[in-house]
Amino acid sequence: MSNLCIIPARGGSKRIPRKNIKPFLGKPIIAYSIEAAINSGLFDEVMVSTDDYEIAEIANKYGATVPFFRTEKTSTDFATTFDVIEEVVEKYQAINRNFDFICCLYACAPFVTSDRLSESLKILETQEYDSVFPVIPFGFPIQRALKFEGEKINFFYPEFSLSRSQDLERSYHDAGQFYWLNTDICLKHKKILTNNSGSIIISEMEGQDIDNEVDWNIAELKYELLQKNKL
Question: The domain spanning residue 190 has which CATH number?
Answer without folding.
Answer: 3.90.550.10
